Amino acid sequence: MLLPRRVRTVFVKELIDIMRDRRTLVALLVVPIVLYPLLMLGAIQALSLQTQQIAAEKLVVGVLSKPQQLWLGALAHEAADIYVRRNPPGRASSAPADQTEWANVELEAHEARGDDLSTMLHEAEVGIVRDLKRAIENRQIQIGIELSEENEDDPATRQLHARLTYDPEEVRSAAAFRRFTSVFGLLRDEKLTHRMLVAGIPLEALRPIVLESQRITTPGSLLGQILPLILVLMTITGAIYPAIDLTAGERERGTLETLMVCPVPPFELIVGKFMVVTTVALIGAALNLASVSATVFFGGFERIVTGGGAG
User: Fold this and answer.
1) What is the pLDDT of residues 231-251, one digit of tens each?
2) 273 exposed, middle or buried (CB, 10 Å; 0-12, 13-18, 19+)?
3) N or C of the chain: less Cβ packing under 10 Å?
4) Which H or E run contains 50?
5) What angle do the packed helices 36-56 and 171-198 form, to 10 degrees?
């Protein structure tokens, strides 16, 4: 059904006026085309620089005593030897990235500086503190480690207990936790393999069920999950300024009284203005959506938001 002539007249007149306004053009063009890409690319660059900086920093670890300090150093040497044996320099590791994060980072530095990998792992600053939790809260250390052992006299059942105290909301502390989790996981796998071989039990005995899956569609996209929310926010944001300008702006400009005495029913006047606001909001949402999609695709952000794996 066609709109009444007066509604179309109000719509065309208000749309032309709003498009002539410089602030509307800035909100429609400059913000989505310039500001959003700059913000996203800047955030990506800042995150990348922070990640590289944290990876290059020396870990600051806290323990409760001197024997614990020496014990942790020995474990670091052992983990480094295991990793080098499994992944000699020049051969890519086949292990998942989350299991070899520490070793991968240190191996890259090892190749660049020519140092021994076990020495570099041992270079983490390990200090003796009385209260691990308070030291982490005061940013004196990044992570606290408490080591203990059970069944020391029986090599077959000996257990190493490592208690990691960290702050998940602090970036460096969380990174230290992931790295030490990788180290202790490497030690656990090596000792388990050794015990199985000594007992004459095949390693396949640990995997009575092998579960495999085959995905026939593309992986779920994080962008697809947050895109509806982004689109709603963009639509609302794009409609705010024209809605204010077409109502309160009329009164500020002194044209509201003139508009009200025109031979147009108030309902048709409101409908015409509402259609202008809707049109501008849809245009703004489309431009924002196109800008964000182009930034994600061409700006190197696609692999992150689509769950393609972290670098």
Assistant:
1) 777 777 777 878 888 888 777
2) buried
3) N
4) helix 36-56
5) 50
